[in-house]
Amino acid sequence: MTATTTKTLTVQEAIETRVSIRKFVQEPMDQNDLHEILRLATLAPTANNVQPTRFAVIQNKELQQKLQEVSYNQSQITSAPAVIVVYSDFEDVLENVEQNFPASMGEEQIQSRAAALRQQFGQQDVAQRGQWALSQANITFGFLMVAARGKGYDTVPMLGFQPEKVRELLGLPEHVQFAGLLPIGKRAEEGFPHHRHSIERVTKFY
Ligand SMILES: Cc1cc2nc3c(=O)[nH]c(=O)nc-3n(C[C@H](O)[C@H](O)[C@H](O)COP(=O)(O)O)c2cc1C
């Protein structure tokens, strides 16, 4: 544990004060906070509750350096005490479908639901169902950013990296798809004020 006490923000405060941060205070992540942030992110909903999102947490400067090299040398990757790689792995889901259902459901129900899911997704190819799973992982990615900010941490979502190189670096199978990289830590800069479209610009009311 670090000495810093973390005040939990309201959802509104977390959303309003989240900005992308690319320079972080040089101190390790509090591991309890890290676990709690990940736990909160896993509460994100997924279709059929399939839970295809996976996390790879990197807190090793050498590996972060290598990750930075395959991310167009974006320095926030080594500035942050940790980087959370968020990806979907739907093949893992299909191989372990039974785990998606609570034991309280009973073995017969579990087997029948598992067979239905396998049948449904067995008709799609790996890329197709991988894309579907990625849309679930993207929701979790959003939850993760808000959860982090809620616990007093800062992040920057990133898609500027070479996915095939990141897969290779982390030893991940070819079928996994990335929601993004998320350097996380405490801010050592203010970030930019939000610049957003008005509600009228982006909304049609019917
Ligand atoms: C999916 C996604 C990918 C992004 N990729 C990068 C990136 O590779 N590098 C980077 O510096 N910022 C990246 N950003 C951060 C955006 O530039 C930033 O969110 C946007 O300018 C709005 O600023 P704010 O996050 O401070 O509100 C990304 C943001 C999102 C949502």
Tags for this model:
4-stranded antiparallel β-sheet; 9 helices; NADH Oxidase; alpha+beta; Nitroreductase; 4 strands; 206 residues; binds flavin mononucleotide; globular
Explain this structure to me?
It holds the Pfam family Nitroreductase. Residues 15-186 form the Nitroreductase domain. This is Nitroreductase. The chain is an alpha+beta fold and 206 residues long. The chain has a single domain (11-95, 128-191), classed as NADH Oxidase. It is 44% helix and 12% strand. It has helices at residues 11-17, 31-42, 61-69, 76-79, 90-95, 107-122, 126-150, 163-170, 199-202, and strands at residues 53-58, 82-88, 154-155, 177-185. The chain has a four-stranded antiparallel sheet with strand order 1-2-4-3. Helix 1 (11-17) crosses helix 7 (126-150) and helix 2 packs across helix 7 (126-150). The radius of gyration is 19 Å and the shape is globular. The termini are far apart. It binds flavin mononucleotide. The site of flavin mononucleotide (FMN) has 13 residues, from loops.
